[in-house]
């Protein structure tokens, strides 16, 4: 796909958004394949930390584990470039990004009741609101650059949304019952990403653990856990998040386990 730059996004120009968010660079596109891919290309070409890429829609939006991210016009598709000096625990990054974002969404958008479904889903009430895709480029044993992409459903999901998604997903406007400007959702995402990702700790300290506890959508829920590599599914209960970012899972049979690299389906 050829990527067409646009002069305005959410009614504001790149210059207005650059000032609003205190960025060196904000790139605005119409339809793209994936803002994460464009941000990665910009980062390879030397773009500054804090650079933001926004698109009105995506043709091949990507989610965790190679899933497709349905990205029609009316949603927020935002990727930000980071150049962390160190990030000793990259697996923690989506969770840190998510905690920062839901805290800001809760502060700024009344009536949303956001939470994080480990490790990278954003929830509003009991439905999926958005997700985070963190992708690092490595060189000489350290992160050369990191792209954190966030997708949030803002406009109500239309008839074009896949059937399975309509019953499980929601949007900012559906959850709040108002029409929230895209730029206000982007304000929260940018402030949320800046909160913990640039100086990402390797472990959650007590204040981050308290935040994880507060926004942990899975806590005390019955779930089915399946390893990403296709191992056997186990059922049990989620009991929290460990300091290293692993999910704490008590299977129906057996002892409490720390799990990583799994998908988690909540029982309905
Ligand atoms: C998930 O739920 O698995 C993560 C979804 C992440 C979607 C965002 S939209 C902006 C950025 N560009 C992408 O292709 N993916 C992320």
Overall description:
The chain has helices spanning about 15-20, 35-45, 95-110, 165-170, 170-175, 180-195, 205-215, and strands at about 10, 10-15, 25-30, 50-60, 75-80, 115, 120-125, 125-140, 140-150, 220-225, 235-240, 245-250, 255-260, 260-265. The strands form 3 sheets. Strands 3-4-5-9-8-7-6 form a 7-stranded mixed β-sheet, with helices on both faces. Strands 13-12-11-10-14 form a 5-stranded antiparallel β-sheet. A two-stranded antiparallel sheet has the order 1-2. With about 270 residues, it is α+β, with helices and mostly antiparallel strands. The model has no long low-confidence stretch (mean pLDDT about 95). A hairpin with a 5-residue loop joins β12 (about 245-250) and β13 (about 255-260). Bound molecules: biotin.
